[in-house]
Amino acid sequence: MTKEDVKSTYKSNDTEEWLDTVWTRPIGYRWALFFQRFNIHPNTVTILSMIIGAGSSWFFAHGSYRTEGMDGLLYNLIAMLLLAWANFYDSADGQLARMTGKKTRLGRILDGAASEVWFIPIYLSLVYRFYVHHDWEFRMLGIENTGQNTWIAVSVFLAVVLYSGFGCHSRQCGIADYYRQIHLFFLKGEAGSELDNSVQQQKLYDETPWKGNFLWKAFLKTYVNYTRTQEKQTPEFQRLMKKLRERYGETGHIPQEFRDRFRALSLPMMKWTNILTFNTRAIVLYATCLADVPWLYFFFEVVIMTAICRYMRARHERFCKELCGQL
Fold first, then answer.
1. Secondary-structure percent of the chain, ordered helix, strand, coil, rounded to 5
2. Residues 284, 288: Cα–Cα separation, whole Å
């Protein structure tokens, strides 16, 4: 296995994060070779990733060394290893698809859903963890450790976790993925990106009969909502695309000069999309769980990651507006 072999499975050099290039992609590539040898479909790898990632939640539910001693530390280390393993498979499925040409719409939908399948049970397990281990937090806040106070605190924490997961995590990862696909579209064209739009997905959903397609229809409906949410967050980009279609007709006719100009403006955004996806999020999750302050992770997600996401969106929308005005 050479570096060039691994690089051949990248989506693009522009969109790769440094940690992925030295850690995730090389290991993912080895797994991809393993699955290719046994003719395992990339979608199967994605589902395995979901199972392993969700399974880590049972281990995250335990306290770490401060509250459960060496047993707790061991549980948390296992949780971290399982989530990292799930991420290797999440890398391997895309690498395998690019190696074998087995790219499917279902694969795109499953890949987008993988993070949700991991983190929803992990987040809920951390709520249970707080329910069991909250003595230190109550002492710091001067709260009497009674059953009633515990349920009030857990209810408040659950509300914060749900907002963090559905109001922040999902939207942050969704918009980061969208900006990556936009960048790939202007870099490689339609064939090199997965830049879907809600109108196309809604049409596919409407044309698919319910009979014999119940699960597929459910996946499509979820994906319609996913793409619609991405579009609602990017009004200036939607105006730019509309103007490009009006001027050039097919998107394949967009001049290379314009594509190069867009890529130059979009490239600095890629470091922010990488921060908003897995690696940074996972490192903070691991650190706060090992320190037995998992609630601090949600503060990071709600405050820090939201600020980064808003900054990224503002910059992207601004240069899209400028480009639109120049057409």
1. 85, 0, 15
2. 6
Distance between CA atoms of 136 and 295, rounded to whole angstroms?
12
**What's the residue count for the chain?**
327
Whole-Å CA distances, 92 to 41, 97, 129, 195: 11, 8, 31, 21
Distance between CA 132 and CA 143 in Å, rounded? 15
Closest CA to 87 of 25, 149, 38, 44: 25
Q: Which two tokens stand for residue 20?
A: 């992925």
The pTM for the full model equals 0.94
Compute φ and ψ for 11, nearest 5 degrees. Answer: -65, -45
DSSP codes joined into one string, 183-226: HHHHHH-GGG-----HHHHHHHHHHS-STT-HHHHHHHHHHHHH
Taking CA 179 as the corner, what is the angle to CA 282 and CA 301, rounded to the nearest 5 degrees? 30
Contacts of 163 (CB under 8 A, 6+ apart): 302
180: exposed, middle or buried (Cβ count in 10 Å: 0-12, 13-18, 19+): buried
d(C-alpha 318, C-alpha 322), whole Å: 6
pLDDT in tens, 75-93: 999 999 999 999 999 999 9
